[in-house]
Structure formats: C-alpha cells, structure tokens
Amino acid sequence: MNKHLKVWMAPLLLMLVTKCAMAQSITIVAENKNTSLRGLSVVNDRVIWASGSNGTVARSLDSGKTWKWLTVKGFEKNDFRDIEAFDETSAVIMAIGEPAYILRTSDAGDTWKVVLEDHTKGMFLDAMEFWNEMSGIVVGDPVNGKFFIARSFNGGITWRSIPDGNYPLADSAEAMFASSGTNIRKLNNQEAVFVSGGSKSRLFIRNHQVDLPILQGRETTGANSIAVKNGKLLVIVGGDFNAPNSTEKNCVISRDAGKTFTIPLVPPHGYRSCVEYIGKKSWFCCGLNGIDKSSDDGNTWQLISNESFHVCRKAKEGKAVFFAGKGGRIGKLGG
User: Which of 49, 72, 222, 278 could form a disulfide with 85 if both were Cys (CB 3.0 to 4.6 A apart)?
Assistant: First the structure.
C-alpha cells in the first residue's frame, strides 16, 4: 500500500473504531437511590435479579422494562453483595457479615429462608459461584489466616464448610474484594478459581497459588474480578479503587489457565471491579469511571461509556448484558 494512502487511512480507521465503540450504548432501565447494587444475576434475556445494600433485592421478568423492588424483612441493614438466580422464583443472596448470611427464596422473594449463618469474628463473605442449578461455592475473607470456603450441592438449600485442613492459607493483609460477586468463577465443570487483593494479589487454582502481575501492596489494591473462557483464557481486572482513573497494572491475561500472564496492549481506562466474557472474542469490564469493551480477548480495551457501575453480567441463557451500581442504577447494553 502507498505510504501516503496509509497516512490518510490511519485517522479514518481510528474514527471508525471510536464510532463502533461508542455505538455500544448503555440504557439506564432502573434506579433506586436507597441502595447500591453489587449483586447481579441474569438468568436469560427476560429474567434478571439484582441485590445490594439496605436489604434490597430487585427483579425483572420482562427484559428490564419493569422492576419489582423489595426489602428482605429482618435484613433491612444488611448488604447483599452477591446473588445467584435460577429462574423466575428461586434465588440465593449473600450478606457479607458480620454475621455472614446466605438466604434463599423459592417464591419470588416474598419469603426468604436463612440457609447459612456464621457469627465467627472476622467473617466476611465475598462472592458465590454456581456450576449449575445444584452445585455452588462461596468464598470469604481469611479467618485465622485461612480463606473461608463453603459448598452447596442442592441449589443453595444447604451449605457446609470444607474440611479445615483444606482452607487456602492467606498471606499477611491479603483478602478479597466483595465488589461484584465475581472474584470466584468456575474454571471448568469440576473446578473454580478465585483471586485476592490487598498486600498480596494471587490466583488460587486447584492446590496452587500464583502471584499476579497486577497492582498490589496496599489495602485498596489488587484483583477484583476474574472471568474465564473455555477453561484456559483468564482475564483478571482490578487496580486501586481509591484511584479510579489509574490504568496502572489494572488488567492481566492468561491464555494457559494461570501458568503465564501478559498485560494488555491497551488496558481498561481505570480501576475495574468486574469483568465478564460475552462470547467469541468479546469482553466487558466496568468500574467507578466507566465501561470498557474488548473485541480481541482482552488485548485492547475501548471506553464505551462514562457511566459508573460495579457489576456486569451476561445472560446465562441468552445474549442480554446488564450492569448495576450505585444509586440502584441498572443499565442494559443496547437499551
């Protein structure tokens, strides 16, 4: 190609890329100033559940057009940082602590049953993950130097802690962030992986711990979220939530299930609390200062919105993508 033609085409290509990125519009479909939402579960393109502070749970059965807001009776002061919904009527919510609670409903939120209650000093739950409608896991900050883990094998109806000797050991001042319910994810049909932050930021996979080349060393730094593609490609985001505009070491990528890591050519445009795999080579991540999209498996990120959100989730069965954050704001990709 003629070098003069290359020079002429470069800004045109940049304009086209920018235009395509900004074409990914986010429409605000709900708002509730009495809560901050960090839990989000999109069952399918029609059924969406969210959870947050002040005992709040929200549910939509019509793709986000209308919402039912409820406050869980007796838990008006609890912060439900994660939620896993199974259908229109059944869901599990996680209150961080202390004490730490997991509650379950089977009647669309009219009533809730406490299925896990832990008054251990220092108990703080961070996130849940379900492999399917039966098998789930919850992780929490270290107690007596060990990360807390419990499992459910009946759809969250009952939970039991793993044997004490199997709890992963935590480093001094190492913990996790209950920022989006996504610092633990299924790696494959049998295993899960989770990430930590604080003084040390690591990936916990099987019986191994891997140091992450992500920002760490302070209480506010480290990995916040992990997403997995095909059991091999891991994208991890975080940074420093006290520096929302900083791009320093805020994203790392592994293409071999955590054996080696690279950093993006163009990182997300600030601290990010959640990353979500959408399909093919597409990913989204969000944080306090906006939303980024990658169309090349995390190597380059484009800012598509300045809207602030804590969490982003794609429909488990479908294509819809939703966001949730402070002020009870819920956004939908594409409106």
Answer: 49
Mapped onto helix, strand or coil, the DSSP state of residue 11 is helix
Distances (CA, A) of 159 to 125, 170, 200, 231: 13, 22, 29, 26
Query: What is residue 14's predicted lDDT score, i.e. its pLDDT?
Result: 37
Cβ neighbours of residue 222 closer than 8 Å, sequence gap 6 or more: 177, 195, 196, 197, 198, 200, 201, 212, 214, 215, 216, 238
Q: How far apart are CA 229 and CA 255, in angstroms?
A: 9
Assess contact for 16 and 288: CB atoms under 8 A.
no
Of the candidates 199, 198, 203, 255, the residue with the CA atom closest to the CA atom of residue 226: 203
Cβ atoms within 10 Å of 74's Cβ, excluding its own: 11
CB atoms within 10 A of CB 115: 18
Q: pTM of the full predicted structure?
A: 0.93
CB contact set of 226 (below 8 Å; sequence gap of 6+): 182, 183, 184, 185, 193, 194, 195, 203, 234, 235, 236, 275
**Closest to 273 (Cα-Cα) out of 12, 96, 82, 101:** 82
**Of 119, 282, 98, 273, the residue nearest 195 (C-alpha):** 273
Tokens of 223: 């990995």
The string of pLDDT tens digits covering residues 28-68 is 999 999 999 999 999 999 999 999 999 999 999 999 999 99
pLDDT digits (tens, 9 = 90+) for 106-116: 999 999 999 99
Q: Cα(268)–Cα(264) distance, rounded to whole angstroms?
A: 8
User: What is the largest distance, in Å, between two alpha-carbon atoms of the chain?
Assistant: 71
Amino acid, res. 330: I
According to DSSP, the residues that pair with 313 across neighbouring strands are 322
As a whole number of angstroms, the distance between CA 30 and CA 326 comes to 11
Tokens read off for 334: 């594409």
Residue 22 main-chain phi, psi, to 5 deg: -70, -15
pLDDT at position 98, please?
A: 87
**Vertex 170, ends 166 and 171: CA angle to 5°?**
150
